[in-house]
Amino acid sequence: MPTGRSLRQSASSRFLMPLLTLSLGAALWLGVAGAMAQPVRMIPADAPQAKLVVAAPSAGAPQTVTLDGKAIGVAPGLRVFSTDNQLLSPAAIAGQKLPVRYKLDLYGQLLTAWVLSEQEQKALKAKS
To answer: What is the CA 104 to chain-centroid distance, rounded?
Structure first.
């Protein structure tokens, strides 16, 4: 016959193991479900569409970009989001012509740009 202490230990382990297994299973399930979810892009409805070209950075001049051929200054804290909502470094996309929707700050400088996927471009064309 088990002693009082070993009886308590065996009873607690009988209830503890299923609880731990259930907790681990739930955590794994939530992790997989979160990883499978597509990122939601919140692009403002009033953000205009353009072709963005970021000028190559130089030490002597401020950063500039062109939106549909028009030179625009870059706001401090410029954020360029890729098609999967990852932040892109302006230096990494310098010289590329990218379809974007964008927002300017109060001074007319580029503040935020969202690079558009093929599907988003087709959806915008269908709306027009």
So the answer is: 20
| Contact criterion met (CB below 8 Å) for 96 and 109 | no
Mean pLDDT across the chain: 84
d(CA 71, CA 68): 9
- The domain locations on the chain are 1-37, 49-127
Residue 78, CA atoms < 13 Å, CB-side half-sphere: 21
The sign one gets for the Cα dihedral 32, 33, 35, 36 is positive
Please tell me which of 1-5, 15-19, 51-55, 119-123 the model is most confident about, judged by mean pLDDT.
51-55
Q: Which two tokens stand for residue 113?
A: 């740009």
How large is the average pLDDT for residues 27-55?
78
CB-CB contact of 9 with 76 (8 Å) = no
